[in-house]
Write the structure tokens for this entry.
Amino acid sequence: METNLTDVNELIKRRYEELEELQKMGIEPYAYSFDVNADSEDIKNNFNEDEKREVKIAGRIMAIRRMGKASFAHIMDDKGKIQIYLRKDEIGEQYAAFKLMDIGDIVGVEGFVFKTRTGEISVHVTSLKLLAKSLRPLPIAKEATDEHGNKIIYDQFADKELRYRQRYVDLIVNPDVKEVFITRSKIISAIRRFLDEQGYLEVETPILQPLYGGAAARPFITHHNALDIDLYLRIADELYLKRLIVGGFNGVYEISKDFRNEGMDRTHNPEFTMMELYVPYKDYEWMMNFVEQLITHICKVVFNKTEFTFEDKTIDFKTPWKRISFVDAIEDKTGVNVIKASEDELKGLAKNLGIDLGAAEGRAKLIDEIFSETVEPELIQPTFVVDYPVELSPLAKKHRSKEGVVERFETYVAGKEICNAFSELNDPIDQRKRFEDQVKLREAGDEEAHQVDEDFLRAIEYGMPPTAGLGVGIDRLVMLLTNQTSIRDVILFPQMKPENQ
RNA sequence: GGGCGCGUAGCUCAGUGGUAGAGCAUCUGCCUUUUAAGCAGAGGGUCGGUGGUUCGAAACCACCCGCGCUCACCA
């Protein structure tokens, strides 16, 4: 980890020496530019034996096989690896310089494409230029192919701590990692393009907020010096986006980081990416259909398939997805109607299910727990769970016909929630009452309960059209679609404890 | 936060109380179509840290640091 020159190890010391020797030869070890006209993939895909195609490529040296007056090396560019072949009698001085180059160095190569005796498409080098000398040894793995054509990797860089802390190294030596992040980016642009095409406006709302809300979570607190006030890092975008619906936009969305000051594990990072969408004059029924379209659009344009493997499960996103009622699903499993049941009955049920009852659990948390324990794990194929108890949803509109529930749905896949949506509560009088109920929970010790947001109430008192709202946890969606079981494997720089010294 | 596990060379790992090891990487020599290139030789370690037990600790004990898995809470 240490960058002090005083205690670098032998390998690094050697590279500093090579750097000096190269400079003595008149070589600038950190070049200014190099014009490229091909990449490894293009060369391999468009190979023609007779053409002797001239190419200029650049990349990082990943393997060297020196054989005296000739050498082979593999260089890696954005698209993959390609072999290069160098001969002393052809490149002279540059061959001497090549002897001072290492795995990890970045080079620019000119040459012609050929196929070796053993059949590998390679570049026969006519000119080699050092572009950046690498001073640290890469934890390079060796690859081989067994008799069945399977790739075997020896000594793969596997230490998760180092991989997360030094993601740049992880990306260099573990190509699958790079692939996941490319896919993540494609998923996000597919979402953005889809929403733009529907005519929704991408907006940006404050991360620093004097009051936080829109979700049940504990916030990060920061301080503004000039105003001398504490501010919160947002836990959700919801309340600002709905203000914009009041303002008259015909559909707004935001893809951005939210921050929650809670534990970290394989599905939680303190900062994570949310997509929230609000569409006026629509309700949650409309939104369910929209979610089906959005997700199948991603499947089509990014993956061109609807079937995915996640862990040991096969998930099929083919629509229509199953829809089940939250209350009925629990009743089917337990025989208890959680709307009608008293708090004592709920406690009894929870206890029978082996749920650990913390102090001061309210109805809402009890019901939520019972659902997580009984129904959630079985929701493997995409399923809409609809109509949640009102206690769980202080920002959702009362159901138009059913007592005790709101018009809300969550979408579950592989036993995990991937989105949350509702017909937004636009009755300011009801909204005030819900906030006041939250305050009671807060006073009873629930740190995650909402505060009263007077400005938000003022906004909807001016009148907010009926609105459908949606939140999608992007990191978890990416995990699902790329078959990654840890959120840290879909976040480039996951939160880590500070490195010691 | 609780439980379980891990930390030895640049990387991947052996090493259960008695001279710190292997493969790859590195260095030297040979080698002009190799591909885990090969052959011959060499260097490289505060065994995560601090204390303790012991004649003697990489190993045993305690505490600390970091990481992973898992449970709880949350998206």
Chain A is about 30% helix and 25% strand. Chain A has a mean pLDDT of 90. The longest strand of chain A covers residues 54-66. The two ends of chain A are 8 Å apart (CA to CA).
